[in-house]
Specification:
The protein is of the alpha+beta class. It is built from 5 helices and 8 strands; from the N terminus they run E-H-H-E-E-E-H-H-H-E-E-E-E.
Length: 216
């Protein structure tokens, strides 16, 4: 599984390259089916496959089957004592879960392996990050570093959103990549807030990241 390349210890993940045929049984609970009763085709396919991944991941932790309904932000409401994250992009779906006694917060993200449009890149990066990306592109030109940075911030925000005093913006975290170890550091630009750590992995078509907040 690709997602396990980026997961920290104690976390388990499941992923899928694409979706089952529309005629295949979804395996969703009735409550989950009702949650997407009026969704469009794209949203339904993303929801179904990502929930299937999440159910398989929870089973690997030994949890009994249970519906995973969207919470206030749209993220799944995980069972008590569990934290996790889901992600989806064209051709890929994934879920990762862990016990909160091992990791209190976890986030994952997947993106297509392609550069960002310049206007988007300018909008999500700090001056320090733009200098960092320029150096990385010179030394490792085979990686779309700007899109990877976008993915890393998405993972960080999924991880830290439950603790943040307000919705996070793209300039609230400053990312530094370590190319040799496939890790990154995210320094939150908020008073009295911690540094988060993450992992990344690339394929010719996908970029994957995860971030986690260790137990104090």
């Amino acid at each position: 599984m690709l997602i396990e390349h980026v997961l920290p210890p104690h976390a388990v993940g499941e992923d899928a390259l694409g979706d089952p045929p529309p005629t295949a049984p979804t395996g969703l609970f009735p409550e989950e089916e009702r949650a997407i009763a009026y969704a469009g085709d794209k949203r339904r396919r993303e929801f179904v496959t990502a929930r299937q991944c999440a159910h398989r991941a929870l089973a690997r932790l030994g949890l009994p089957p249970a519906p995973l309904l969207p919470g206030p932000t749209g993220a799944p409401a995980w069972p008590p004592g569990i934290t996790g994250s889901i992600t989806h992009c064209d051709g890929y779906r994934a879920a990762a879960v862990t016990r909160t006694t091992d990791l209190p917060h976890l986030g994952i993200d997947a993106e297509p392996h392609a550069p960002l449009p310049p206007t988007v890149r300018e909008g999500i990066t700090t001056p320090t990050e733009r200098h960092h990306l320029q150096h990385l592109t010179t030394t490792h030109p085979d990686i779309a570093w700007d899109r990877l940075l976008f993915s890393a911030k998405e993972s960080v925000y999924k991880t830290y959103a439950p603790l943040a005093p307000r919705p996070l913006d793209f300039d609230d975290a400053e990312i530094t990549f370590a190319p040799t170890t496939h890790t990154f550091t995210a320094r939150l630009q908020l008073p009295h807030h911690p540094t988060l750590f993450g992992n990344w992995h690339t394929t010719p078509t996908l970029l994957l990241t995860s971030a986690s907040l260790p137990t104090p």
